[in-house]
Amino acid sequence: MDPIKIKFWGVRGSIPTPGPRTLRYGGNTSCVEITFPGIPRFIVDAGSGIRELGKELLASPNPEKGHIFLSHFHWDHIQGLPFFKPAFKPGNHFIIYGSDEPNVDLTKIISMQMDPIYFPVAIQDMGAKVEFQSIQEGTIDIDGVEVQSRYMNHPGYTFGFRFSHGGKSVVYISDNEPFRQEYTQSEVQPKTVTLEDRFESFVDNKEEALIEFIAGADLLIHDTQYFPEEYEQRVTWGHSPYTYTVDIAVKGQVKQLILFHHDPDHDDATVDKMVDLSRERLRKHNYAIPCNPAQEGAVIEI
Ligand SMILES: [Zn+2]
Q1: Minimal CB count within 10 Å: which of 14, 107, 176, 216?
Q2: Overall pTM > 0.85
Q3: Exposure letters 200-216 (e unless 16+ CB within 10 A, then b)
């Protein structure tokens, strides 16, 4: 069977960081394209990286269809959407998946982003057929791809996704924080998501549920925003030190790890240092898997 192709269009957390300091790994915010053989493309998150992906799609002479999954609605995950030109081209068809927030559904959340106060073109004037599908924790099937969604430990309602097809799986967790205090000396406790009833199963099981969610994945793309000393100052911000990311990759016995959501203050050399330390920690665990930083433009096949 043809491989699943994963392409990184944006790898940065929080805010785009153009300039010479980030040339190698890239400055665009979160956007990853996953192509399963023979199926309309999947796009995960619509950070500024989706703009470049859009330019590639526009070059296609055929109508395009795509499934766009939004992990959550912080700026670095949606700011590219109004600049995604294929959504303005009649004949194209995109379905946007994401969580409702309390008292605001997905359609309203994205429509508000394109309110005339913020952007000159309204979502209903986009031209392509754009549909919205609210999702909750659970599993859905799209064109034979099994998509599992789980809420992560990040302020607000933030999904991690597991995409499985043909016996292979890719897990995307862009923003997530440890559930336990062992990763910090800080007085501040990591705050486990305290949401309503529908999340209770996850809140009860906490990290065990996360390990089960990523277990055996062929590729884990996970938040690795901080060094442990940075995390000390940022407990409850919803991001992970590399130590945690490596440890859960080992516990989940994943087959490949990509360090994702680079801190906007980390230049290329700093990301290199993070990669070295992550590989060293994997060696200490006696767990030999490929471990690389997400790099804009890079393609992985599994
Ligand atoms: Zn983010």
Answers
A1: 216
A2: yes
A3: eebbeeebebbbebbee
